[in-house]
Amino acid sequence: MNIIRYETAGESHGKGMLSVLSGMPAGLEIDQTVLDRELARRQGGYGRGQRMKIETDRADIISGVRHGKTIGSPIALMVWNKDYENWKDKVTEPITRPRPGHADLVGAYKYGLTDDIRHVLERSSARETAARVAAGAVAKIFLARFGIEVFSHVVEWGGIKIDTSAMTLAEIRSRAEASPIGSACGGTQEKEITAMIDDYRAKGETMGGVIETVIYPIPPMLGSYQSAPRRLEARLSSEIMSIQAIKGIEIGNGFGLAGTPGSEAHDEIYFDNDKNEYYRKTNRAGGIEGGMTNGCPVIVRAVMKPIPTLMKPLDTADIATGEAAKAVTERSDVTAVAAAGVVIESAAALVIADAFMERYGNDSMEQTTRNFNSDPDQRKFRWKGVNWLDGRIAGK
Ligand code: EPS
Question: Is residue 394 part of a domain?
């Protein structure tokens, strides 16, 4: 990221998780309840483990905000780990049995930490995403000031696909927000999925899934084709793929485009003379063409692999003895796919905030708003298609 940047620090059982976010203009009102609501959402979702019962994540604003508004300086946000009290004086046995799929084995050798894999595990833990969500919540507050919304829903759980083709965007969002699995399916399918998660828990298994993130409304012309690092697909992918356990990503019709003839792969352009606007009837591109938003909803799907900490441990080799062993079992979640949706929203919000600042940004919110409002072409590409996602959704 270019103008908006952030870094996180913190270990899973250390004092807390810190994020430092820079580049936000001065004068943005920060509502603490929004930060804490996002952190609470990240803690939720069916299938989470014991740790989430210990923590009540809250963002402690350390710097960058005075009297409720940003002042242009780096915003440091601290999420204190309540569990630290239980760990600070704890004497733990060294971990020498790396979990396949985690950072354990290679991380221990890379950093010369083979005496105890816990040195690796503490930082590679997905607990780090609490800090990302705190920073992402600030980006969401910023985007909301310009009418930009980001939400996600889980479209596949352990192989069970959720069909949202008969639902509007608004329906999907409200149903997913009310669901313990973060999906819009409701009723029968929700029960089927929660029963499957229970079954996985009983068997010592873990479960992955696919999350769809929607950014809409979103202004056109964010991102650029001019240089590779400015392309919006690249920026979104990079940020989302950096989230723990995310193994694949697609934008719009993504991988499906391989089997689609060109005549059915793109979104034809129409012009409404009365409204002086361009519009599309489909959104196969997922709202991005040539690395730039085109006014249609930005659609990103990402797959989260099953968490590598299994209670039914996999084969491994003990790095102290070289002997065959079973991987270490640590307290963990059966699945955290719904929580990953909140983390992806944060990642997307940070990227979009960065691209927005590139086009309209200034050091103050006042001037940034003026720049945005005075853009004559900003409404020229407003999405007015009947269907928001390749004709799958009837209505708006
Ligand atoms: C997590 C906190 C962790 C894990 C989980 C995510 O807490 P603890 O290790 O104390 O149980 O529950 O991390 C992983 C599953 C992982 O593999 O890193 C959190 O706050 O989201």
Answer: no
